[in-house]
Amino acid sequence: MAILKHIASKNADYGEAQRYLIFQHDEYTKKPILDENGNMQLREEYYLDGVECNPFSFDMECRELNARFRKNRTYDEIKSHHYIISFDPKDRDECGLTGEQARQLGLEYCRKNFPGHQALVCTHTDGHNGSGNIHVHIIINSLRKNDVEWQSFMERDCDSRAGRKHHLTNDYLVYLKQSLMDLCNRENLHQVDLLTKAERKITEKEYHAKRTGQKKLEERNKQMISEGITPRTTVFQTQKEYLRTSIEEAATYAHDLKEFEQILLEKFNIKFKISRGRCSYLHPDRDKPITGRSLGTHYEKDYLMGLIGNHSNLRNAEKDQTVQKEILSKEKIHNRKPSANQHGTPVSAEAPTAPFEKSGLRLVTDLQRCIKAQQSKAYANKVKLSNLQNMAKTLSYVQEHGYETLESMEEQLAELKGQTSSSLKELKDTEARLRQVNEQIHYTGQYLANKSVYTQLRRSKNKVQFRQEHSAKIALYETALKFLKEKANGGKIPTLQTLKAEKEKLLEEKKERQEKYYSYREQKKELDTVCTNIHAALGKQHTRPLRNHEWEHIS
Question: Over the range 31-49, which residues count as b (16 or more CB within 10 Å of their CB) and which as e?
Fold first, then answer.
């Protein structure tokens, strides 16, 4: 499972990279480990090679090359690139990988993918944090020393010329990963697909933050124990790790994104937001949100929508008939009529006059298809209790609204679907008109802002020179005038005050139509849930009206 890491460095001291490769360094502080005399200690085993340079004069040769081409002279320039190839520890035990073999593979990889660059290639066999994995460090000067033959992975002509800098793009990085995968497959080493995004993306910075935090936590806990205090926690958790754990738990119980957001906020104090199709999460101790992309693919919108959608699909399937029939047998719903107002007339199907209040109705869960319920008896009992509560709410809804037959409910559902669709169309029409008005306001402002310049052009004696001096403003004026005339269709161009007044009117209209649409949509969703639960109670998946003996069966 060889992986590739890349670090860009602006450090002008090339000798520091040499010292890191040759001498022992502390894993936490990255400082050299000194002996009793204050001298640095050599690593126990390492293989150091140079490409296009002597490995022991790498720093001096890089500075000479930079001076010759007058590059890498400012503090904000990238001076070197550090690539690390880490092999799987199993490659040493199971595949017989040795330090010498890894050395040859590293040299081959460097010469193939970084031609013309001065490079240090150093192989370590100690592994990080005592893991024992063999890894190869490749440190190249960002400036190319020699002209080389153009190759397919080079994107620009200058990528093969001396005196030009190493240019790492996304496509180039993909090529480097593919090259490493091919190399490992050729040598029959363990390898994973490096081109697939990680489900849990843990960066090197987060990895070191966890190690450092865990060490500090253990020291603090040790002091607390010595004082007779029991530590509250023994495992350090980074902010990203806290987000991942919370998201996974919330996604387990949520059945839609709104419920998912509510669980994150109420239980974990995490604010969830979707902007331009991307998820972001605000940790309670942060001011800036963390994107789902930085957490891993399992925390992005597409995966979460699929996971939450699976929960909803499970609840739409056949339901636990025994549990639901026990609830439905306690009440009778066959002698009910549609609800009426105080004068005895049926409730109108027109636009709602009061805000819609949710009843908290949810679909019941099918225990036979819920894998988690089959694996955990405690979770199954929890689902059964939830099903009982949901069916009780379903029955209460039917009684409250006075539905006599399932057919009447389905007729009302069809009517609500039509009203929802028509109200959505009205809302879209209003939004479209509002966009047009906003566009007209924009160009009217542009027209008025540059009108004085155009007036000066008409009065100017040397119109050609004046137009050249004010070409940008004149172009803006003419563009705005052309747009406004097209919108006016030969009529009078509306004033800015008229457009702003229309915008205010449209905003009010949009707000009213939004409320109307949301109300119809929630009513439709709630009644649809009721119909689905009733069908599940009967153990049938159909939409025909219920006969009398069937109503008696569930009564």
Answer: eeeeeeeeeeeebeebbbe
Backbone angles phi and psi of 269, in degrees to 5 = 60, 40
Q: Which two structure tokens, joined as six digits, stand for 28?
A: 């936490």
Query: Domain containing 243: what range?
Result: 206-315
How far apart are alpha carbons 438 and 253 in whole angstroms? Answer: 42
- φ, ψ for residue 342, nearest 5 deg: -65, -25
The gap from C-alpha 126 to its chain's centroid, in whole angstroms, comes to 36
Are 103 and 214 found together in one domain? no
Sequential DSSP letters for 97-156: --HHHHHHHHHHHHHHHSTTEEEEEEEESS-GGG----EEEEEEEEEE-S-----TT--S
Judge whether 277 lies within some domain: yes
What's the pLDDT tens digit per position in 117-148?
999 999 998 876 556 689 999 999 999 999 99
Q: How many CB atoms lie within 10 A of CB 65?
A: 21
Would the CA dihedral through 526, 267, 320, 313 be positive or negative? positive
Alpha-carbon distance of 419 to 412, in angstroms, equals 10
Residue 180 in domain: yes
What does the pLDDT average to over 337-361? 44
What is the rounded distance in angstroms from the CA atom of residue 163 to the CA atom of residue 142?
Answer: 10
- What are the structure tokens assigned to 247, written together? 């998201």
**Are residues 120 and 137 in contact, defined by beta-carbon separation less than 8 angstroms?**
yes
Rounded CA gap, 135 and 124, in Å? 6
Q: What is the pTM of this model?
A: 0.52
Among residues 196, 216, 250, the one where a domain terminates is 196
pLDDT digits (tens, 9 = 90+) for 255-306: 888 888 999 998 899 999 998 889 999 999 999 999 999 999 889 988 888 8
* CATH number, domain containing residue 100: 3.30.930.30
In the chain, the number of structural domains is 2
153 and 232 housed in the same domain: no
125 lies in the same domain as 234? no
